[in-house]
Design brief:
220 residues; 39% helix; globular
Length: 220
């Protein structure tokens, strides 16, 4: 089978619909506990804006939980790669608004679009080290998004009692069926507009330092 045909199959609507429901049913087996959600939801209801952030390694669980927030029509940046085509379709099907672009392609226009979504609807999400890493390195776009929209940053962490870790650049994590999974939202982090390059880098590095301990290094 040629690469072109394989790509046509995996990006076809029937296959993507099957994949979406497979992920939904699989994720429903998790014994999921959600922590510290009320704080940032109250912030949105009081007129604030929130940018949820997680590592690429841990975003799988979000496909289940983040459907709950579809009423806000949140924005999320997804790369213009072939893998991004699949992720964007699933995000849109979940009720999110996929904005296509990354640090290597179409990043500036996508960043502006996410800022606009944040200003309009109060909620967006960002994968800090995606789509290709390096793992555990916070890319600068998150600071530009949050400060540009006057939004707080809320780190999101995922822990699973039992999980598979793939031999990918990010050691991508998929919890095992019926395992206990904890999705924890950290405290809100203010992100004022940085006045200098040094202030910008300080904000970026501070967020990285806060979130690095949550990155799972071991492959099991």
């Amino acid at each position: 089978m040629s690469k072109k045909l394989k790509f046509a199959i995996i990006t076809s609507k029937p296959f993507l619909s099957f994949l979406y429901w497979l992920i939904r049913f699989y994720s429903a087996t998790f014994r999921l506990a959600v922590e510290n959600e009320k704080q940032w939801l109250d912030h949105i209801h009081n007129g604030g804006r929130v940018l949820l952030c997680c590592w690429h390694q841990q975003f799988f669980v979000g496909i289940r939980q983040f459907r709950k927030y579809s009423k806000y029509k949140p924005g999320i940046m997804i790369s213009k790669s072939s893998d991004g085509d699949i992720a964007a379709w699933i995000a849109n099907r979940t009720g999110w608004c996929a904005v296509r672009g990354s640090s290597s392609r179409g990043g500036r226009s996508a960043l502006r679009a996410v800022i606009l979504k944040l200003k309009e609807n109060g909620l967006a999400a960002h994968i800090l080290d995606g789509p290709r890493g390096p793992a555990g390195v916070v890319k600068p776009g998150v600071i530009s998004m949050a400060s540009g929209a006057d939004a707080v940053i809320v780190p999101v962490y995922v822990n699973a009692k039992k999980a598979w870790y793939f031999k990918s650049w990010d050691t991508f994590m998929v919890p095992k069926p019926f395992t206990r999974v904890t999705l924890r939202f950290d405290d809100m982090i203010a992100c004022p507009v940085p006045e200098t390059k040094e202030a910008f880098e300080h904000q970026r590095a501070s967020l990285e330092k806060i979130m690095l301990p949550s990155l799972h290094q071991k492959i099991s």
